[in-house]
Amino acid sequence: MTELTFQNIVDDGAILFLETHHMQDDRFEEWGYERWNTDDQFASVEFHFPGRSSKHLQTAFVGTSGPGPKSFLWGWANPNVAATPAQKEVFDQVVAFGRHYGIEELTNGEVPFTSIVPAFADEEVRLSAEKAGSTLVAFKIATAVKMITGRANHFTSDIGRGSMAVVAYNHGSLELGPPSALTFQMRVMEAVAAGMIEDHRRAVESYARFRLQTPVTEPSPGTLEVTFDDGKATIAFDENNRLSTMNGSMTGSK
Fold it and tell me: Where are the alpha helices (DSSP H) in 62-180?
């Protein structure tokens, strides 16, 4: 069995996740997003857009990350969450995947922040970013769920006291447009700055494979080139596969 870790999955999907995240935010802003609401058991989610019809989406409530307990609680382990068919479908896939590869973050009902973001074991780091930590954990979990289940979209929201809820869903109006060299570079830098990815080279190679469905080229040792219709990005990595420099050029659409 190929060894695979939770962080490997996040590295594989983080750039694509952030691209989807910003696309959704832009679309929600365009639609005039006001709020979302759910019933007590998160059985369904409704997004409210004043002046438009509210959107009832087939959603799967994934779970919550909380700075109080400093852990992520999967929805299937929360007795206050309804076991809807959509949720069961997501959880069955995630847990089965976790068991197959022996990934405890996907099979344990409650996962400590330090398992998802090892840096939080440092007391100074943890105390300086409790809220940011809860968001980062939610983003990493959502990335893993996106990669495992193929659910195209996600929604994360503060539900009080810094806790973040994670919801997964599919919606035809929230599909990504053509990939862009400029957008790619922005999302790479964001993923690095946020601490989402650890193996930066793997993250770039995986984005090219999953999003562009083309391999990267290696013009020189330790350097990758990613080509888009509107340009290209050249990224150099150090001996630990961490980004050292990135340069881009725009060529215009073909």
Answer: 85-101, 104-107, 113-116, 123-128, 130-149
Tell me what pLDDT residue 127 has. Answer: 45
The pLDDT value given to residue 254: 45
Q: With a cut of 70, list the residues of the chain below it in pLDDT.
A: 1-2, 40-41, 53-58, 121-132, 252-254
14: nearest Cα among 228, 219, 188: 188
DSSP 254: -
One-letter amino acid identity for 192?
V
Picking from 202, 168, 20, the residue whose alpha carbon sits closest to that of residue 93 is 168
HSE of 150, CA atoms in CB hemisphere, 13 A: 2
CA torsion sign, 202 to 208 to 213 to 217?
negative
199, 11 in Cβ contact below 8 A? yes
Count, residues in the chain: 254
Q: What predicted TM-score, i.e. pTM, was given to this entire model? A: 0.91
The H or E element containing residue 203 is: helix 200-207
CA 117 and chain centroid, separation: 14
